[in-house]
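Case study B.
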Amino acid sequence: MTSLAGPTRRLPFGLSPIAAIAAFVLLVFVVMALLAPWLSPFDPARQTLLARLKPPGFTTVSGAVYWLGTDEVGRDLLSRVIYGARISLLVAVLSVAVSGTLGTCLGMIAGTYRGWVEIVIMRLVDIVLSIPAILLAIVTVAVLGPGLLNLVLVLGLTRWPRYTRVAYGQTLSVANLTYVTAARISGVRGPRLLLRHMLPNILAPMIVVATLEFGLMVLFEAGLSFLGLGIQPPTPSWGSILAVGRNYVGQAWWIATLPGFCLFGLVLSINLLGDFLRDRFDPRSQTSS
Amino acid sequence: MARVYRPELTRALFGTAAVLAVTLTSGSALAAGKDALLVTIAGDAASLDPHVQWDTDSYTVYRNIFDNLVTRNAKGEIVPQIGKSWKYLNDNEIEFELVDGIKFHDGTPLTAQDVVFSVQRITNPAFKSPQLSQFNSIVEAQVVGPNKIRLRTSSPYPALMAQLVKLSVVPEATVKKTGDVEFNQKPVGSGPYKLVNWQRGVRIDLEAVPGYWRGKAPFEKVVFRGVSDPSTRIADLRTGKADVIRNVLTDDAPLIAKDPNLQVLSVPTERIGYMFLNALHGPTADVRVRRAIAHAVDRKGIIDALLGGYGKMVNIVLTPANFGYIDGFQGYPFDPAKAKALIKEAGADGAQLTFITSPVYDQRVVQAIQQMLGEVGLKVNIATSDQPTFLKRRQGNPAEAGNLSTGNWSCACQDADGVIYPLFQSESIWSKYKDKDFDAAVEAARTTLDEKKRMDAYRKAFELLERDVPGIGLFQGVAIYAARKELQWAPTPNEAFFVFDMKWNG
Amino acid sequence: MTGFLLNRAAQSIVSFWGAISIVFVIMHLSGDPTLLLVPEGATRADIEQLRHLLGFDRPLIVQYADYLFQLLRFDFGASLIQRVPVMDIILSRLPYTLWLGGCALALALLIGIPVGVLTGLFRGRLVDRICMPIVLIGQSMPTFWSGILLILLFAVELRWLPSSGAESSVSVIMPAVALGALSMATYARIARTGVIEELSKEYVRAVRAKGVSGIQVVLSHVLRNASIPIITVSALEIANLLAGAVIVETVFAWPGLGQLAVQSIASRDFLVVQGLVVLGAFTHIGLNFVADLLYGVVDPRISLSRRDT
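Model:
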């Protein structure tokens, strides 16, 4: 969400209908994540082995109701989905922040300064891209042990080249634009040149990449869970619930369905909102409208 | 009827010349009728040279291509195969008489020399067989007659026969002629099926050998395919892409049982579901904590509620399918109150325990145990890593091995020697437990052929294990297969997958 | 031009070396396959013996030097698990990956780009509002979930397609859809962004003012200029397809390189993993080289000669 920071403008309320819906969905998820302890009817880690795989609406003899049913070890699915929002959002936000900042900076530097800096950075991009991300993930888990921070580290370290490639390509195509050249001639150098003159010009595609990446990070976390290397149990994430639930589509469809739709809704909303933001903050579409 | 998907329709819609060129090569076998058995296992075989690989996917396939020196019948008794009869000459020497007139698939007769060569090949360190440790007690193999061989072990070795169940016999002449690499890809055995085609990662095609010495093979063709996703394996079975599948999850079994065209085949195995407790490091170094854990784990709850009954309760770390199993041990009955008291006594209330695991193990069981221990006041942190990393920790020094883990142990030898010796003998890599008396007992049981003496030694060993709790036997594992209703087959406790023993009903 | 090519070749070799070295070190940091090879119950001595026989007890630097010398002779070694030359294994899997990746990419491009151009042209109108969310659906579902849903619908319920494997000519359809859906939205969004940006530029406005229709402008100018990000993303997207293939291939039991990579990593079959990395590095460096050349073709503002220095 760092990319929101157009310092010259605040988020206007003139949202398009789709963006408004997306923003609302996102807001619901964020609220869900923040208020999880108060919203959840049960402890999300609490198992009841005798109440495994119960369908939505299952009521115990003592009158407790599992509105969304229970999972493979008898935990309340609703509570797990509410808590799951926390991890899914946190992993995505942190890893996009890490990889986006790192990747964009390196890409701009490579595209602006050229020469050996460009060579070193772009070859490093090649090197990282040619190593299977899954290998890096497994090795990090092996060496550092599993956990939230290591997950963010894995995603940050494997995803930055994607920003770099785009930032580099975009920087190349704006480097010769009149005002950038003008700034250079007037002696603007270093971080000031990059941040004040380059960044605003390449921000739009970077936001596109970041929003796509945000969605991908949510999915990547899910994928690691599928391979058994995600967030550690009993902490739930949408990805980890879905990874187990997919094996139960035949017997207990409800396990995968809700976290699946939440994940889906999250990724879709963030992408739609990204579209809106890009249209709004693209310096060129602004100057020309 | 079962294999209905409509290639002609979809091919007309989507097919292109390129598609056909790439993939049509093997599509035709799908149309085969009931003379073919389609098997879906968890992965492609890594190797079909029986001396090169030791993993379930590989031996599930190659054991149908090769014959073994001896084998086990449905009851689990060791019975003749290539070896017609055998007798111990003394504690260290055993002589086998071989069946006459067996031929390898390439027509060469199977001789005593081939058997000796097979032993020498697998025990030659330079060959780097992963199975070396199963056979390296054999120090000499020699031909002593036209159909007689003699094996000598370095010391009396009671598990020898159990290990020889896994000795596949390869043709010396062919192996020497083609070389090891080539033989791996084009194995030649004497078993009921021969390899026709192996498309790596896609499928393995076997064909019945006419005139096989033990009788006519039940299916003309057998096709093995590797599918790692358990849900996809079930889809294969339901769509007729498979007739029988391996490694069915307990929660999937009821779903399959409901299908009128399918059946679940299951058998209690020699695999023991157990829990390891680190007796040398951390809070679990205190025997009271270990006993408390044993009291806190509701084994019956795990079996009935989690495993859907696919498991049998045991009170020791061994299954009734193994030699050395002793009835009558009480174990630690489920008693949370007693567990809490023991923990309080040990001053371990709120102690942090590390539960190491990998995706290979049933995560439902791991999480259930985590909660059960949480309820008696122990804080359990689960640390998942991939299997090699898990093994490195589990087999490493006690300080790195975590406090707890679960496992599914099978030595494929149905003998206590292959279970509690490696798990708890103090020198073993798996063991995080030291007890001189225990070491002496399992050592005694491994160096005599006298069954009575061995049972006595194991009784002593299990008494010590019950006292010190370096591990808890959770349940006897059950192998679950699923198949089409028409398949008739009784799976065996050693999880062997002999297609020769299967047949179509009616 | 020769200087440029030589320069790039030298850089490529350094990239190769970097990728191979990094993978060599991290693979060896994560343990070796000995423990996975031995049967349960092997003693410490047995394991040490096997480790010695396989050469994993040698100092890392010796193993590393050994491997590099092997590579210099174009010898990729043999798989420790399968005991078959690494090249044979990779070559037997490569056609499947190319076929699946090609189908997925074609699907993504053929649907993604037109949707992107269309929504860019009719930005904010109904077409835009309906098409984008639809394309995005494919990208918003984890493949291990959508994959099993596809199997249950098209294989188990409808019996239209085979549930797994690669034996029939139609086997590729489901995995290609699952995989292609991931990239479809990427192309659509990049194409849309490009079109919108180009449409807002002075020259387009000038041309349009002269009465040339939107479609014509798009076809003649806008698409060419919007193709820079599309090319950049394509080079990346192929890598993404290969990574995504890991899960798709697992779900559909597709015998490509993705599944091979996962299995080789899981079994610590070092030489196979390193062979895959060599192949990956080769592909990437080749693709980036092509992408760089294409920049020059589609956008004359970027000249190759400048990159020579």
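The interface with chain A takes residues 230-231, 234, 249, 251-252, 254-255, 298, 301-302, 305-306, 358-359, 363-364, 366-368, 370-371, 381-386, 388-389 of chain B (CB under 8 Å). The remaining cases will be described in the next quarterly update.
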